[in-house]
Amino acid sequence: MSLADQITPLTFPGEASQMSQHVAALTVSRDHFATTLKALGNTLTARHGAVCAPVLDKLKHYRNQPRIPLLLLDDLIVELEDATGDPCLLSKAFGTLNYRPSLLRKTYLAGAMTRREALHLLCRYFRVNSEGVVLTLHAHADGWSLDIASTGSYASAQSQRDGIALALVRTLEGLGITAVRSGQPGETCIQLVEHDLDAPLGWASCPAEQLGKRERYLLRQADTPAWGDAIKTLLPLLYRHGSAEIDHCAALLATSRRTLQRSLGEEQLTFRVLVEQTRKELAAVYLRLPYPLEQVACLLGFQQSAQFYRVFRQWFGCSPAEYRQHLTQPVHPPH
Predict the structure, then answer these.
(1) Is the dihedral of CA 80, 100, 172, 151 positive or negative?
(2) What pLDDT, in 10s, does the model give residues 25-52?
């Protein structure tokens, strides 16, 4: 029976084990699903159109759902690979997409100041796109690597890892990061050139809502929501927007000021402490970038440079100019 015949209702055969139940619960975002369909449509030849078009057409109405079952996408990929006899179909499909900087700067990646910050956003938010794959950024003695792993066992897991690896390499190139793909069977690893990572992107900041909606999703999905991590992720962008207020953060996370304060208190945190921590960490990063001190103060959300200089001396016991003169080791953005 073809996938087109099976598509409604969606069922999963057999008595599911704990692992299969886990996979059955995984989803992908509407945007990821639509992008995958578009890429596959770009790749399929006229020779395969008669076989594949009904399958793709049957799936189009799922684009209106906010989340789509991963196993639906899994069945689609397996069906099309069998129909075309091409196990590399998904990688070829993702190779047809646009990864130019002119497009990337319109995405949430423009919430980052530097390439390294963009990498952390990419890893943090990839689960929003697909719960079937996890990205992890690792530091090594000779540089950094971006590891790609499946979160469960499903038929197209290897195809999806390979396709996502290709898409990530192209995305990294669009960010100006030199990447070399490697890996063992069952996993994929992308090696990153260290000297590329601390350079500023030089892009206009994206709207805060692009990060806010992803943070809301992560909070909803977490067994124990990490409100402090959500705030720390939002603050660097809000500093650049000049609007790093608790009420703005609460609105972006779809909660009230009082609830946010209570949630942070349960993590032994306060909003004021998070602002202090993130500003101090980012100050050490931004002073490595080729910006005037007045611009660094602005990037950290200070209304007046004199206030930044005074607070900086309290943090580090010296002026920003003196700190910059004595920099010898790379300083990485906060995780």
Answers:
(1) negative
(2) 899 998 999 899 889 888 887 666 666 6
